[in-house]
Amino acid sequence: GPSGSGKSSLVSLAERFYDPDTGCIEFNGVDLKAISVKWLRSQISLVSQEPVLFARSIRENISYGRQGATQREIEQAARQANCHDFIMNFPQGYDTNVGEQGSQVSGGQKQRIAVARAIISRPKILLLGG
């Protein structure tokens, strides 16, 4: 949506950084105010417009979303995030180091790697671009 349309506010409300002044927000038919904030946030994965990548391999950046993830699970998440093909085009594939703050990959590639990391964590709610 356009700038100022309330995207960031909606994300903040969904994660219960604050509650609405009027009305309510529901998750599976239950008012968010009735749900534990800790539990709710454990069900949500957020990929911001400027995702954070660690100066490690693509594999490590994706698997950070779920420790102990297998290579098959990492590749499945990458395929769902539409990044497997470009990863395989790197000479070192999933072992490619993304550099400090993801400096060795493009902005779009950073976002897709971050989406794969979010997907592998199996969230009930995936928020993009907050």
TrEMBL record:
GO molecular function, one term: ATP hydrolysis activity
Domain ABC transporter: 1-128
BP GO annotations: oligopeptide export from mitochondrion
GO CC annotations, alphabetized: mitochondrial inner membrane
PANTHER family noted in UniProt: ATP-BINDING CASSETTE SUB-FAMILY B MEMBER 10, MITOCHONDRIAL, ATP-DEPENDENT PERMEASE MDL1, MITOCHONDRIAL
Name of the protein: ABC transporter domain-containing protein
Source organism (scientific name): Odontella aurita
Source species taxonomy: Eukaryota, Sar, Stramenopiles, Ochrophyta, Bacillariophyta
